[in-house]
C-alpha cells in the first residue's frame, strides 16, 4: 500500500485552487424589502454549493462636504450605521449558510461601487439581486443593471423574485 504524503507546497496549491473555484455570491445591502430575498437566496446557494457570501454596503456622499467638520461627522455616523447593518445581515447569513460572509463598506454611488468591487475582487462570481414585487418598480439596482448597464458587469446577475417565501427560496437555491 502506497501512501502519498502531501508537501506544504501541494497543500497550498490545493487550497489556492479550492479558493479560486469557490463561488462568491455578492449581495448589496440596503433597506429595500427585496434585499431580504437576495440575502436568503445567496446564503442558501452558498451553503448548497460550498460557496461564500459577500455583503457590500455603499455610503452615499454627504451633502455637507463644504463644511469639513459637519461632513466628517456625518460620514463617521453613516459608516457606523453601515457597519452595524452589515453585522446584522452577516449574522443572518451565518445562521443560514454556516459561514461568515466577507464584508465591504464602500463610499460613493452604489451602482458605481458595485462595478468597482466586482472588478477589484476576482473571487466574486455572481451578483444576487432581489426584484421588487411592483412590476413598475423592480428596484434601483435591478432597473440600472438590466437597463443602461446591462452586459457591462463581468459576472452573471441572479434576479430573485421579491415575493418568494423562505421555503420557496430554499427550494430554488
Automatic annotation (TrEMBL):
Signal peptide: none
Domain UspA, residue spans: 23-160
A Pfam family annotated for this UniProt entry: Usp
Name under which the protein is recorded: Conserved hypothetical cytosolic protein
Organism: Rhodospirillum rubrum (strain ATCC 11170 / ATH 1.1.1 / DSM 467 / LMG 4362 / NCIMB 8255 / S1)
Amino acid at each position: 500500500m502506497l501512501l502519498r504524503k502531501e508537501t506544504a507546497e501541494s497543500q497550498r496549491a490545493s487550497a489556492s485552487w479550492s479558493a479560486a473555484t469557490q463561488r462568491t455570491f455578492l449581495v448589496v445591502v440596503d433597506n429595500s424589502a427585496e434585499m431580504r430575498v437576495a440575502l436568503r437566496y445567496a446564503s442558501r446557494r452558498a451553503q448548497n454549493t460550498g460557496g461564500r457570501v459577500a455583503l457590500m454596503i455603499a455610503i452615499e456622499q454627504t451633502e455637507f462636504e463644504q463644511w469639513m467638520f459637519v461632513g466628517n461627522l456625518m460620514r463617521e455616523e453613516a459608516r457606523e450605521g453601515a457597519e452595524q447593518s452589515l453585522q446584522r445581515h452577516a449574522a443572518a447569513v451565518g445562521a443560514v449558510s454556516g459561514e461568515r460572509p466577507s464584508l465591504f463598506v464602500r463610499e460613493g454611488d452604489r451602482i458605481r461601487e458595485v462595478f468597482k468591487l466586482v472588478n477589484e475582487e476576482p473571487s466574486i462570481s455572481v451578483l444576487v439581486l432581489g426584484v421588487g414585487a411592483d412590476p413598475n418598480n423592480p428596484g434601483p439596482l435591478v432597473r440600472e443593471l438590466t437597463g443602461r448597464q446591462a452586459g457591462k458587469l463581468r459576472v452573471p446577475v441572479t434576479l430573485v423574485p421579491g415575493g418568494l417565501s423562505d421555503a420557496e427560496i430554499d427550494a430554488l437555491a
